Amino acid sequence: MRDEFANLSDLQLLSLIHRAEQEVARRKEATKERLRAKIEEELKNAGLDLSDIFPEFEADGQAAGAPVAAPKSRAKFRNHASGDAWSGRGPHPPQWVKSIMAERGWTLEEFKASEEFLAQN
Questions:
Q1: Is residue 69's pLDDT more than 70?
Q2: What does 56-121 look like in DSSP terms, one character per residue?
Q3: Separation of alpha carbons 90 and 81, rounded Å
Q4: Residue 80 has what pLDDT?
């Protein structure tokens, strides 16, 4: 297996990994959507809703009495080698971003403008 990657540069390998991760995520989302539609159809045909099957969930899908959490920021930037991610928000970038900026002599604006570290292309 090692030979099939021998002629690829590190950047090409990272790009391949990134594309594969995106495909796995796409397939997972597609499977979730298919399952959700199938379950919703079955519930509708039976005249039920999710809380009839899982009483611990209210009609809005939240666990009864569960605190409402603030939505998490979606990762906008990703270190494809380590998997570390950053939303691009906050007063200070994470260490992996600082390391890349120092290594390449980039400003934060230059890092954000680079498409190389976008979480989703």
A1: no
A2: TB-TTSSBTTPPPPPPPPPP-EE-TTT--EE-S-SSS--HHHHHHHHHHT--HHHHHH-STTBS--
A3: 23
A4: 85
Confidence class for position 99, pLDDT limits 50, 70, 90: very high
Contact yes or no for 76/117 (Cβ under 8 A): no
* CA dihedral sign of residues 33, 35, 40, 41: positive
Contacts of 96 (CB under 8 A, 6+ apart): 79, 82, 84, 86
Question: In angstroms, rounded to a whole number, what is the distance separating the alpha carbons of residues 25 and 19?
Answer: 10
pLDDT digits (tens, 9 = 90+) for 21-53: 999 999 999 999 999 889 888 888 888 887 888
Using an 8 Å Cβ cutoff, are 86 and 118 in contact? no
**Rounded CA gap, 45 and 24, in Å?**
32
The amino acid at residue 110 is E
